[in-house]
Specification:
The complex is a heterodimer of chains A (110) and B (112).
Chain A: E1 5-7, E2 10-14, E3 19-24, E4 31-37, E5 44-49, E6 55-58, E7 61-65, E8 71-76, E9 85-92, E10 99-100, E11 104-109
Chain B: E1 5-7, E2 10-13, E3 19-24, E4 31-38, E5 42-50, E6 53-57, E7 64-68, E8 74-78, E9 87-94, E10 102-103, E11 107-111
Parallel strand pairs in B: 2-11
Antiparallel strand pairs in B: 1-3, 3-8, 4-5, 4-9, 5-6, 7-8, 9-10, 9-11
The chains are: A mainly beta (110), B mainly beta (112).
């Protein structure tokens, strides 16, 4: 099935650095979502975006719904150890199934 | 508010057996989706149920089936298990179709 193009695939950063990741699609979505998954657990919804151009924050996380409705971005500022995990973007269109990105694995180097 | 509950958390089966996994959605949520997650394939969509009817279906063989009950609880069944069915099976719920989904912690199925 279709998966969204998410990049980068993995990131190795130092604590305190800022992080940026993005997700692109060949077709438009009405809603963009960002999830984080810790080992052994299910994905947790971080941010939901409902309108083209929308910029939404959740603490140190900021996400944007691209103007073209075909992309979305997630930024994490001043990373901390608990930010480690896999981040997934996902898109919703009407009553269709949720379409997921391939994931970005974030690792913090001591 | 209780989250999505999946049982069992871990399961070990052998090839050829069948298995049933259970999911209780967040109270008030009527849509339930199932996903298979493997290290190499990411999150693969299995099916979505709403009001006891399958509304969306992924590209999995007929050995994978599901159902939803009148209280919105859902089960998925896999028959004639194969080694490749070893994965984390995730359930997610949302109030209605087309809305953000909330996930359970999954059932880890291992096939020997």
């Amino acid at each position: 099935g279709q998966q969204l193009n998410q990049s980068p695939q993995s990131m190795f950063i130092q604590e305190g650095e800022d992080v940026s990741m993005n997700c692109t699609s060949s077709s438009i979505f009405n809603t963009w979502l960002w999830y984080k998954q810790d080992p052994g657990e299910g994905p947790v919804l971080l941010i939901a975006l409902y309108k083209a151009g929308e910029l939404t924050s959740n603490g140190r996380l900021t996400a944007q719904f691209g103007i073209t409705r075909k992309d979305s971005f997630l930024n994490i500022s001043a990373s901390i150890p608990s930010d480690v995990g896999i981040y997934f973007c996902a898109g919703l269109r009407g009553n269709e199934k949720l379409t997921f990105g391939t994931g970005t694995r974030l690792t913090i180097i001591p | 508010k209780a989250g999505v509950t999946q049982t069992p958390r871990y399961l070990i089966k052998t090839r050829g057996q069948q298995v049933t996994l259970s999911c209780s959605p967040i109270s008030g949520h009527r849509s339930v989706s199932w996903y298979q997650q493997t290290p190499g394939q990411g999150l693969q969509f299995l099916f979505e149920y709403f009001s006891e009817t399958q509304r969306n279906k992924g590209n999995f063989p007929g050995r994978f089936s599901g159902r939803q009950f009148s209280n919105s609880r859902s089960e998925m069944n896999v028959s004639t298990l194969e080694l490749g069915d070893s994965a984390l099976y995730l359930c997610a719920s949302s109030p209605f179709l087309g809305q953000p989904q909330h996930f359970g912690d999954g059932t880890r199925l291992s096939i020997l």
